[in-house]
Amino acid sequence: AATSLEAGTALTQQPCAAAPAWTVAASGQLALAANPALCLAVGGPEAGQVWGRPLAPDQKTGADRYAVVLFNPDGLQSQTITVKFADIGLDVAAARDLWLHTDLGTMTSYSAVVPPHGATMLLLTAQ
Prior knowledge:
The protein has about 130 residues and is an all-beta fold.
């Protein structure tokens, strides 16, 4: 099953406290924005979800940055999950996979096949 902001899935906003508690060493090095907005969630309990939070601007360029997690709560099947960056306020962003330590390039959206109960975490920097 595919979950996608591009496919017209309703975008809901929830307080960040409602976000699942992921522990990611790489994200611990990223300063949160002084006045963070709400986290973003897509889909229902078994549908793929997109969670995001603004970070402090890039120290060198001042560009807006976001941490985004693509989460698959389904315990049985992998899911293709897509986030369209315009839906979180970015037209074009440089994307970095924080867990693979890989720069993914500059793009307007990102899709990943996420395994059951798995997640992918991205750092998005506005371009």
